Amino acid sequence: MPFDIRSRARPVLKWAGGKSALLEQLLPLFPVRFDRYIEPFLGGAAVFLSLNPSLPAVVNELNPELFNLYCVIRDQPLELSQLLRQHTQQYSKDFYYQLRSEAPADPIERAARTVFLNKTGFNGLYRQNQRGLFNVPFGHRKKCPSLCTLENLHSVGERFSAAQLLNSDFESVLAQAGKGDFVYCDPPYEPLSATSSFNSYTGRGFGRAEQQRLLNACISAVERGASVAVSNSTAPFVIELYSEWDIRKIKARRAINSVAQKRGEIEEVLVLMNV
Known about the structure:
- By secondary structure, the chain is of the alpha/beta class.
- Helices cover 35% and strands 15% of the residues.
- The protein has ten helices and seven strands.
- It has a seven-stranded mixed beta sheet, sandwiched between helices.
- Helix 3 (64-75) crosses helix 6, helix 3 crosses helix 7 (150-161) and helix 4 (77-89) crosses helix 6 (107-120).
- It is globular, with a radius of gyration of 18 Å.
């Protein structure tokens, strides 16, 4: 089987829209066999980390902080673990805002900052403003939550060492897909309402023109022989956009939201294209 839900490598971040809790629903809908895995929107990497390590993979993350984090986990997991232990000892509201205001140039310091802010910020949100600055408030926990384990950093790093890790636009990644490839796309979701903030994780936004560009790139990949699956919200625009393809409903639980009443079970879709 190409995927294994029992993989010992676990996502390092608490990621809004992360697929860890949905693997039992998603994986049975994916192809039983394929030669190479391609993921243009890596995010928290839950699906990639469930992949059989023996299969070739191309994974892409446009967010520069996430891309840097995954490179550091791949190349310097021990140094990252040591710095995260120091951050744990320094845990406080003042330290959080001090770290949030900084822009370290050193890759390991940048990676540790990303993990610390993600795990200790309010409700695990990852949000950037239009200038690309992290703007989530302090989470006010009594003590610092577990930031990582060295064992898991090594496991995740081994997965990235065996894959091709890119920092590119999704269209250029999809352009590589062809016969024998399986592509899983988990883009920023189309908002369900005008006040939703599905697209605020990079500061750039991901509007309807981008959703259309994604569909066009997926169709081109399918025409070259690839199998493609796309996750998204149940917004009417999405249902209409993918109306010619096989749309499956997935039960999801939204655990990350700044408004407690908006957490809970929702529906999203998985679009199967030539799967």
